[in-house]
Design goal:
The protein is mostly helical. The chain has one domain. It contains 13 helices and no strands. Helix 4 packs antiparallel against helix 12 and helix 9 packs antiparallel against helix 10. The longest helix is centred in the N-terminal third of the chain and has 28 residues.
Length: about 280
């Protein structure tokens, strides 16, 4: 639900009021402070193992830094509904990466689902005639790459979530991410005139930082401690539905029958990719 609302709320803020890189920098740095305060005063856990720290940096790059930068930059170039539906590829990518890294089974049913979801995604972006909209295609690609990076993160971070408290892992990730994101957003932040922001803009920024960043990463981290990456990733099915409903109710976008059909193809493909393979399959 938090992610679903973000597509409409963040789109109202970017890029008119706040540039994507500046927004991402604020998300990561402020969330890092929140996670660190909680970890220092309540969890009091440290990560000192060298191999774990190396893995944590990799997870930070895929799950915090580059995926956020690509998502917010991509969202500023594309439509809310496009971004929401393309994020449905995350469970497909997660299942595929799990099969490659964790050696999970990837049989005929999952392959068929992957093909179907890809087919639906390509036509969702380009339409029946595959006439890609030059105004949104760059943003669509960025959102898709973001989904790939986040899928890698879901798979790679699983061992850390099993070994440490999710809050501790999140605190370390966001501190590292906060340091790495500064070169991308520092200039944009100091050039932003925050005094011109209305109450609604500030409310949207707070929602994205506290809700979409802190709470969602905390809840995902907790979920990864108790469930498989594929299961956690599969809950993104709800994201395009909620994002579309919110965008339409807010009268920000319209939904065409053509996009509904291709979205259903993506949804079906994702379902098949994550469907448990029967023994006789």
């Amino acid at each position: 639900m938090l992610y679903g609302a973000t597509f409409t709320i963040a789109k109202e803020i970017m890029p008119l009021w706040l540039k994507p890189e500046a927004f991402v920098s604020l998300r990561i740095i402020i969330s890092a402070l929140i996670f660190v305060i909680i970890n220092v005063f309540f969890i009091r856990q440290k990560i000192t193992n060298y191999d774990d720290l190396k893995l944590l940096i990799v997870c930070t790059l895929f799950g915090t830094l580059f995926n956020m930068l690509l998502f917010f930059r991509g969202l500023s170039f594309t439509h809310r509904i496009n971004g929401a539906v393309l994020m449905m590829f995350t469970p497909v990518f997660t299942a595929f990466i799990s099969a490659f890294i964790l050696k999970e089974k990837f049989g005929i049913i999952r392959i068929a689902g992957l093909i179907l979801a890809t087919f639906g995604g390509v036509f969702f972006i380009g339409g029946i005639g595959l006439n890609f909209n030059k105004q949104t295609v760059i943003g669509d690609i960025m959102v898709t790459v973001n989904a790939i990076l986040y899928s890698i993160y879901l798979v790679k971070v699983k061992p850390l979530m099993r070994k440490y408290n999710p809050l501790t892992v999140s605190a370390y990730m966001f501190v590292v991410g906060g340091i790495l994101v500064l070169p991308f957003g520092f200039i944009q932040i100091i050039n932003t005139n925050f005094l011109t922001f209305s109450t609604s803009i500030w409310a949207g920024i707070v929602f994205v930082i506290v809700g979409t960043t802190f709470l969602t990463y905390l809840l995902n981290a907790w979920a990864l401690k108790h469930a498989s990456p594929s299961l956690v990733g599969s809950y993104i099915y709800l994201q395009p539905v909620l994002a579309t409903i919110i965008a339409v109710l807010a009268q920000k976008e319209t939904l065409t029958i053509e996009k509904v059909i291709f979205a259903i193809l993506i949804f079906t493909g994702v379902f098949l990719v994550n469907k448990r393979i029967e023994k006789n399959a």
